[in-house]
Design a protein that fits this description.
The chain is of the alpha/beta class. The protein folds into 3 domains: about 5-135, Response regulator (Rossmann fold), CATH 3.40.50.2300; about 150-315, Rossmann fold; about 320-460, Helicase, Ruva Protein, domain 3 (Orthogonal Bundle). It has helices at about 15-25, 35-45, 65-75, 90-95, 110-135, 150-160, 180-190, 210-215, 230-235, 250-265, 290-295, 300-305, 325-340, 345-355, 360-375, 390-395, 405-425, 430-435, 440-450, 450-460; strands spanning about 5-10, 30-35, 50-55, 80-85, 100-105, 170, 195-200, 240-245, 265, 275, 280-285, 310, 345, 380. It is elongated. The two termini are about 60 Å apart.
């Protein structure tokens, strides 16, 4: 595979110097040369310039003024300023404005080649920094938790099979099922694992900004575009681009995306020249994409391009065997974050959670565990620590004998008595006094609601499963 040469722009009004610099550098760079700053401006807009050799004394706009303009509009361009004479004040000014170096025209050829090479290395590093900053800021513990359920094992096995292929993968499933984490797993096992992973949640971007975010824009291409901006396609070069909620992409941008996939090239807003792309594409959506195609909301040709390897991610309610593993993972995560000594959930508490519908899927479970760990003062999280709406939901989903309202009242009464017992360290007499009921009545309720053991544990200062 042929390595693309970086584009180097020479701005010098001396034709002989332009020819000399071109001859020295053309073997290692794609060299463009102009005689003035004014001539350089349209080149910067239409060409992927990465390096510059900039003369100080130019007709019209001088080199220092040009440098200031370039660093403001094209911050990733590395510029070396050249002058016929050595002027300390000019050199200092150039370096303050962001020039990589300042040299005089009596340079040695090998020294110039070395200097331009070092500027190129710095340009690579600057681009990597911008690429990394475009990735998700918090990478902590962004691992897909592999539970024991058959549904999860099937999905993980399929991801492992297709990871080293170049085919586009489409993850299908409800929000909160872990599609992005599976995409990250696929990236880590792919040939692009050393490159960046760039996630884009299309549903979270305002519609009028999606095109700029994806494809980038040139300075002045629209109101507010005060500088060149690299899009996610460029930032994903050599890595993986993950387009989440692709079903929400506007129809006009679906056409541009299709071209980017088919032709392996994009064009920035306001740009005049296509740019080659090289990345692994992974998509995800929570919408019925087949229905969207039939309704004319999603292009059929794009659908076939991204639906090469479809992977259906089951909702949590279809893989409840994974819930204890997921809960334990989140308990460890938030116990560490909040510096708590929470060991986990008791078996009865897990039983309640395994009887729920989980419309918010794993994301809902994680939010619940974070809340429980944050407020917990005990080693084990028990049924009484769960929010009432979760316990009521279990009653509605799994009603036992008797009326539903009676079970709901019992759940509330049990929780209220337990909270009162906790405040009095398990002292039943003090609890009855606090509740304003006879001691005999409280003992009867504790027997009926099966909470004598909890009260005894509180008196002894023990917490456990």
């Amino acid at each position: 595979m042929t390595t693309r040469l970086k584009t180097l722009l020479i701005v010098d009004d001396d034709e002989g110097m332009r020819d000399t610099l071109t001859a020295i550098l053309k073997r290692d760079y794609r060299v463009l040369a102009v005689a003035s700053a004014e001539a350089a401006l349209p080149v910067l807009k239409s060409e992927p310039v990465e390096l510059m050799l900039l003369d100080v004394r130019l007709p019209g706009m001088n080199g220092i003024e040009m440098l200031k303009l370039v660093k403001g509009q094209h911050p990733l361009v590395e510029a070396i300023v050249i002058s016929a004479v050595s002027e300390v004040e000019t050199a200092v000014q150039a370096m303050k404005l962001g020039a990589y170096h300042y040299i005089t025209k009596d340079f040695e050829y090998d020294a110039l080649r070395s200097l331009v090479h070092n500027a190129s290395v710095k340009q690579d590093l600057s681009r990597q920094v911008e690429t990394l900053s475009a990735q998700v800021a918090d990478q902590e513990e962004r691992e897909f938790v592999e539970g024991p359920s058959g549904g999860t094992r099937a999905v993980v096995e399929l991801v492992r099979k297709v990871a080293r292929l170049s085919s586009t993968v489409l993850f299908l499933g409800e929000s909160g099922t872990g599609k992005e984490l599976l995409a990250r797993m696929l990236h880590r096992r792919s040939e692009h694992r050393d490159g960046p992973f760039i996630p884009v949640n299309l549903a979270a971007i305002p519609h009028d900004l999606v095109e700029s975010v994806l494809f980038g824009h040139e300075r002045g291409s629209f109101t507010g575009a005060v500088r060149q901006h690299l899009g996610k396609f460029e930032l994903a070069a050599g890595g993986t681009l993950f387009l989440d909620e692709i079903g929400d992409l506007r129809l006009d941008l679906q056409t541009k995306l299709l071209r980017a996939i088919q032709e392996a090239e994009i064009e920035r807003i306001g740009g005049t020249k296509p740019l080659r792309t090289d990345f692994r594409l992974i998509c995800a959506t929570n919408v019925d994409i087949d229905r969207a195609v039939k309704d004319g909301r999603f292009r059929e040709d794009l659908y076939y391009r991204i639906n090469v390897v479809p992977v259906r991610v089951p909702p949590l309610r279809e893989r409840l065997d994974d819930l204890p593993v997921l809960a334990a993972f989140f308990v460890r995560k938030y116990s560490s974050r909040f510096r708590k000594q929470v060991a986990g959930l008791t078996v009865p508490a897990l039983s309640v959670l395994q009887h729920l519908h989980w419309p918010g899927n794993i994301r809902e479970l994680e939010n619940l565990i974070e809340r429980l760990v944050a407020v917990s003062e005990r080693e084990w999280i028990d049924v009484e620590d769960l929010p009432l709406d979760y316990r009521f939901a279990m009653i509605e989903n799994e009603p036992r004998g008797g009326s539903l309202i009676d079970h709901a009242i019992d759940a509330f009464e049990r929780s209220f008595i337990l909270r009162s017992l906790e405040k009095s360290q398990g002292n039943v007499t003090a609890t009855a006094r606090h509740l304003g009921i006879p001691l005999s009545t409280l003992k009867h309720k504790m027997s009926r609601l099966d909470i004598q053991t909890v009260a005894r544990r509180l008196r002894q200062g023990e917490d456990g499963q």
